[in-house]
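Feature request disguised as a bug: please show the residue count (447) next to Two component, sigma54 specific, transcriptional regulator, Fis family in the output. Example input:
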Amino acid sequence: MNKPLALIVDDEPDIRELLEITLNRMSIRTACAENIAQAKALLKQESCDLCLTDMKLPDGNGLELVDFIQTLSAPIPVAVITAHGNMESAILAMKKGAFDFVSKPFDLPGLRLLINNALKLSDAGTTKERRTRHTLLGESLIMQEIRAKIGKLARSQAPVYISGESGSGKELVAKLIHQQSSRSDHAFVAINCGAIPHDLMESEFFGHKKGSFTGAVSDKKGLFQAAEGGTLFLDEVADLPLSLQVKLLRAIQEKKIRPVGDQQEIPVDIRLLSATHRNLNDMVRDGSFRQDLYYRINVIDLHVPPLRERPGDIPALVEHILAKLTGANKQDRPVLSASALAALQKYHFPGNVRELENIMERALALYDGNNIESDDLNLPIDAHKAAKSPEYSPVLGSLEDHLEGIERKAITLVLEENEGDKTAAAKQLGLSFRSLRYRLKQLDMDH
Ligand SMILES: Nc1ncnc2c1ncn2[C@@H]1O[C@H](COP(=O)(O)OP(=O)(O)OP(=O)(O)O)[C@@H](O)[C@H]1O
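Example output, currently without the count:
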């Protein structure tokens, strides 16, 4: 088998030499260029497998080369070399399609990891299909675009921020990015940041040393280490307390963590994906989410639209859910009547695809005969529509009372729909459990 070929672009001879030695020791051939013009010429002549480029070059900016590589008929992975601490240019390069960055002075183990990841990317394409266990269904244009974007993002190490309502498929998207990436042989670790008690968070994330606090009876690895070589998915990232936001920022920037009670930092190689159903922009504005962290986790954003905006996806989803619930035997699988499908396509789906799964599960238990009819779906009264109150008029009372009435009505409906389960109701209402409990108390509904 041919040894892979890496193109090194840097105007400093010392750096070129250091990179050549490191790569040659990894059995990688190297070609060197001192500037953008030479690099472009080499890329046209040789069939390179990856490119490492400095940002500041005598005849322009490394970003120009990143752009150029994206226009090739078969773009190769390109990583940029940045001055230590200059995350801005690293982020810019990743937004343009660079798959990762490495800072000077080089941390050699980190550099080797980056190169190995890049080389895996070059052959990831052939094994992609086999690796994909999950499927993101839906033939709407937007879902087709999302699938294409997932394929592209899988070839990068850039942090991706996935936004969208609860139950819309954010975690599924994250799993797919991981599975189609060069990291798919390693772990995909998903963590719901809202579910970890604040005082344990640092140790859960970064691990701890024995004896570092009461209860730390032995050394423990954290989630970053569990995800080593793979992907860490921070779900509900908006729920991270500010104290941990600072530490997370450091971990992303330095690619290193420090377990609680440890003097030493440990290098980590993870890809970070994050999601929330809340509006992080608003949270940045009101000071509850750090702007610098937002900027770093949101290098690339991907929005998953709510199900109500893509009713055309419902038939495929229903078929998939029914097949999953009824197993391989097609004979046992009921058919959804046309009127039932029409009812679903009109429904608001505050809980999105997860709610559709619940509706179908209930319908399967209730239907009678061969077809699932609209009655079997037991669609909840649409809280969205029912909560619409008459136009506001000052004669009816203050605006505050009016809004309180709407809130009361919506909460009551959703609580009824979820048989009093506050956790499920909060999720459906797009609130944290704590904020639902607070509102119930404010509205004197907490008995
Ligand atoms: N396009 C889709 N095709 C197939 N299944 C889907 C699709 N979208 C969502 N699902 C399924 O719907 C369920 C909810 O999706 P998921 O957990 O990814 O949502 P989420 O946006 O991460 O929710 P939350 O914000 O509550 O964490 C999962 O069982 C998932 O497999």
